[in-house]
Amino acid sequence: MSERFMLSSISNDLLSPEMLGYWNDGSLRDVPDDSGIYCVFRAATDPETNVMEVQQLLYVGEHRNVRYALQHHPDNEKWRAFLQPGEELWYSMGLCGHANRERLAAAMIYAHKPRCNAASEYLDHYPFPETTVHIYGKKHKLQSIFTVEHRP
Fold it and tell me: Could you write out the DSSP letters of every residue in 112-141?
């Protein structure tokens, strides 16, 4: 397996995904159909550069097949409700095996508190051991490194 598609677990307490992306609705077929976490962003044109850029993290999820999860997610219309005219949904993902996928998604939700994860148990609750996450790759609007303590 290529190194860019691996989740490092140097120790049980460090998770280090490379965030891949970005994809929009027209390119979702190019998202890997592998296990991992995914982020949904609101993207808009920057008025100074006139370039479309990530503006806000809306949602964090996890699935055994990220492409399928993004193409068939039941909250897709809820995400779209936050878009203004001319804005798009953009997606990124970090490949992660089953063993750490929920733990990584929970840490991301706890640390970032995305508005469309409002019903998540992980906003104020982290049932896993203390975890440090080091994100690299496509990480705009994401904390690069953070630690989440166990909170039952």
Answer: H--GGGTT-GGGS-B-SSPEEEE-EES-TT
